[in-house]
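Researcher: Next entry in the queue.
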Amino acid sequence: MLDPAIATLLEEDRRYPLEAYIFVFEALHYAQTELDMGSESSSERTGSESEEEDSGPQPHVTGQELCQAIRQFALEQYGYMTKLVLSNWGLHTTGDFGEMVFNLIRIGRMRKTPHDRREDFDNVYDFDHAFREQFRIVVPKTE
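Model: Structure for this entry, 143 residues:
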């Protein structure tokens, strides 16, 4: 069953489908578990734990870190088709990731520190460069 807060969000902001939000949650989990982002050293870079909105130490991944994790996770999941998949979900820039994350923060499904800003997600990388240019098909020369 779909979380009522997520269902309401999807009704209020129709830019991104449920699959895109699920992907962002999975990418955050990937960042924390596979890439070890959000460890205490990461939290210390973004502000002390006492400055976080909720009490107690919590793992924290910055906007730029999450964008990098999303890039790696997407390439692992979709390979050469990554840009097409993201585009079909309405994701064309890293700023779109920020829009989604701050939607999730607004409904209480993600948290932020006082230092986190929506703009932290802007222009982290160019989608063409990040998802297309690294895939070059090289035909071997025949002799």
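Model: Confidence is low (pLDDT under 50) at residues 41-55.
Researcher: Noted, moving on.
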